[in-house]
Specification:
Two copies of one chain form a homodimer.
Chain A: E1 2-10, E2 14-21, E3 26-33, H1 40-57, E4 61-69, E5 73-74, E6 79-81, E7 91-92, H2 94-99, E8 106-109, H3 111-121, E9 131-136, E10 140-146, E11 149-150, H4 187-200, H5 217-225, H6 229-253, E12 257-261, H7 269-282, E13 292-295, H8 303-317
Parallel strand pairs in A: 1-4, 4-8, 9-12, 12-13
Antiparallel strand pairs in A: 1-2, 2-3, 5-6, 6-7, 9-10, 10-11
């Protein structure tokens, strides 16, 4: 009898799930469209059925629990609360609804926290007690581990570094504030920076021939690889603000490493090089040389499922 | 036999120490000038002798440990490292030196962490698991408690919010960086803001008749109480930046409360009122209304000794 944990990643578009053993092997996987279930009751029934099916088609497995990464998730309450990108409105008692259908522990947290847990159980942070994971996608998510424990805070929502203010009065953010970290240090932040530089700089740039509404971080990274001066400067500036926020986070919790994860990190050394340089510029001297800036040690393709499953394995260790 | 902990506060000028029981009663106190002991060996001997004397003059006591708050202290190593305001250079293995003279546990941490521990054991945070203490003096110190535990981080130096960057490229800081939180949100930050406003504003102000080198936060607070327009605006701006940093810290660890401690808080509601208003402005919406901004619940006169002693009582609880 082999023990497995179910990892579930609920996104605005897709819900992906899989059975993961203690070593991080994904034994079986499945997915469906989140939007096909506008009613939460149907979603829960289908999810539990799908997990049960995976269990049955792979005999001799024992399910130890279900870990779920979801937007606007509250770890303390096992709820999803007012998630703008999901069709279920208000406060959804997800863990409770699932437990009515299947008698195993259910743990719910946001996707960045799940990524951090994946890093800790299966990735580059296996031996670490203090680290931070930043997920650089459309926005900037963060999962913070201190003294071997995930930081959930008094509310269960802790770790929203993407909405710390790095430039008071700066760029408008979707959250209603201005100057939030994620309006600079994310894939969409890189695009905004490139647009700003197209207005400030006089140099030729291939980016001038792309509609602003269609410009992507990937195009900017590719242009930078071709030595496009605007693209190069956009990446450098993005790295600088990313580093500023990392240095601030280091002053808070003094981690051993900060892991960068997600689309933007595909820029590789073009991003990591300047990030490390600028961390040295903005870091409080006592922390200089004490923190590593690393790419995530979890493969991106199944990171979400691994991270969610890691929530279960982590609780089993405790 | 009554159990007591010795609390020791090592400052650049004075070293204060006292015997504190489990309920926070200071049973005996003493002090000497730190600068009278340029050699650390002599300092340690005198400190241990002084504690032994206090124990003997108060019979029927049992010493359970010594807690020490000191600048640039490393909790993990029990050391004071490269403290610019102390005459002992390099790395001072303080805990080890003391333990050679007296066989009790010795715990060393920085003064802001000790203040947070005092808040937790004897002050306003007795029932709290997640809170932050900001000490607003010449600089800004911070002690962060998450899930009932002090945050020391990988290096032992965590909790340096005073040196997070709030205005990239802003005011020069003593640490060599620019735009650090404490260059705005502290007693000296208030003075710098008043000087800046004296240049920006045209209004009459009693502060124009004080030498810049002699201007103090207390004078500005007093002038504000007399409705001096420059002083009022200086306090409002200081409150705004203080609040911005608090909102950023809340996004990190989602505490139940942030306690403000130290000289600047004597401004009372004149400071707390605008701080609360601006926290609402800068906080990520999900945290709105979840965090209290409170004055410290520890009396300032013996807070340093209580905080240092609390380090010992806290370890006894664990």
């Amino acid at each position: 009898m082999k023990e497995v944990a179910a990892g579930v990643d609920i996104g605005g578009t897709n819900t992906i799930f899989g059975l993961v053993d203690k070593t991080g092997d994904v034994i079986a996987e499945g997915r469906f469209k989140t939007k096909d279930f506008p009613e939460i009751g149907n979603f829960v029934s289908s999810l539990v059925d799908a997990i049960n099916n995976l269990m049955e088609t792979n005999s001799n497995l024992k399910l130890t629990g279900i870990g779920i990464g979801a937007p606007n998730a509250n770890y303390h309450k096992g709820t999803i609360e007012h998630a703008p990108n999901l069709s279920w409105k208000g406060i959804v008692p997800l863990a409770e609804l699932i437990r009515k259908k299947i008698d195993v522990p259910v743990i719910v947290t946001n996707d960045a926290n799940a990524a951090a847990m994946g890093e800790m159980i299966f990735g580059g942070a296996k031996e670490m007690k203090d680290f931070i994971v930043l997920t650089l996608g459309t926005g900037l998510g963060s999962g913070i581990v201190i003294n071997g424990e995930m930081v959930y805070g008094h509310t269960g929502f802790a770790g929203e570094l993407g909405h710390t203010t790095v430039f008071p009065g700066g760029r408008d953010c979707g959250c209603g504030k201005q100057g939030c970290y994620e309006t600079y240090a994310s894939a969409s932040g890189l695009v905004r920076t490139a647009l700003q530089l197209l207005s400030n700089m006089r140099e030729q740039s291939s980016l001038r021939n792309i509609l602003p509404s269609e410009l992507t971080a990937k195009q900017i990274t590719e242009a930078a690889a071709q030595n496009d001066p605007v693209a190069l400067k956009a990446i450098d500036y993005t790295a600088e603000v990313l580093a500023l926020g990392i240095a601030n986070a280091v002053a808070f919790s003094s981690p051993e490493a900060v892991f960068l994860f997600g689309g933007l990190t595909k820029a590789g050394e073009m991003l990591f090089g300047p990030v490390r340089k600028y961390v040295d510029k903005y870091i409080f001297p006592v922390f200089k040389g004490t923190v590593e800036i690393l790419p995530s040690g979890v493969t991106e393709s199944n990171a979400a499922v691994l991270g969610a499953a890691a929530l279960v394995w982590k609780e089993r260790i405790n």
